[in-house]
C-alpha cells in the first residue's frame, strides 16, 4: 500500500466497479413515476466494465503480475482502464440519446452519480496505470520472438477465446430463455466475454505446454 501507483490503481478499479453496479440513470415517466436504470440494461455496458474492473484488480493485486517484466502484464491495468474510459464515453452518448427520447413520452430523466463514479474510477486507474508503465519502461521489452512455444501459445489463445465466446453465448442464450431483451443481452455480454478470457488463458497455456513437451527435431 506504500506504492502510490498501485494504490491509485486499486482505488480506481474499486470506484469503477462500484459505479458499474450502481444505477446510471433516474427517469420519470407518466403513470410510472421515478425508475432507476442500471448500466446492465439497454446495451449492457456495465457488464463489460465489471469485467474490466475485476481483471484490472487481479493484475494490480497479484504480486507476480505487478513485479513482472512481461510487457502485457505491466501494461494490462492501463489498457483495461483506457478501455473503460472509452466504453463510458460511448455509454454517455447513448444515455443522452435515451434521455432526450423521454421527452416524446412526456417524461424526463438525468444521469445518476453512479455513472460519474465509474468515470472517476476509470480516470484514476488510467493515471495509476500510466505512472506504473512509465516507471517500468526501462525493464520492459517489446520484442516478440517467433519461437515454437510462442506461436503455439498464440494460436491456442485465439482458438480458446473463440471457443469460450461461442460457449458463453450459447449458455447465456439457454439460461435467459424468455427473459426480457435487456436482461438477456447483459447476460450474453458478461458470460461470452468472461468465458472468452478463460478460454484464451486455457488455450494459450495448454498449447504452450504441449509445444514444450514435444521433442525437438
Characteristics:
217 residues; mainly alpha; 3-stranded antiparallel beta sheet; 3 strands; 71% helix
Model description:
This protein has helices at 4-21, 45-61, 63-66, 71-101, 113-135, 148-175, 181-213, and strands at residues 23-29, 33-38, 108-111. The protein is mainly alpha-helical. Helix 1 (4-21) packs antiparallel against helix 2 (45-61). The radius of gyration is 20 Å and the shape is flat.
Structural topology:
Layout: H1 4-21, E1 23-29, E2 33-38, H2 45-61, H3 63-66, H4 71-101, E3 108-111, H5 113-135, H6 148-175, H7 181-213
Antiparallel strand pairs: 1-2, 1-3
Helix pairs in contact: 1-2, 1-5, 2-4, 2-7, 4-5, 6-7
Largest sheet: 3 strands, antiparallel
Provide the spatial order of strands within the biggest beta sheet.
Answer: 2-1-3
Report the β-strand fraction as a percent range.
Answer: 5-15%
Distance between the termini: 49 Å
Helix percent band: over 70%
Which residues sit in consecutive blocks of at least 5 with pLDDT less than 50? Answer: none
Give me the count of strands. 3
Helices and strands, in N-to-C order? Answer: HEEHHHEHHH
Structural class: mainly alpha
Q: Please, how many helices?
A: 7
Computed CA radius of gyration, to the nearest angstrom: 20 Å
Task: Briefly say what this structure is.
The chain is mainly α.
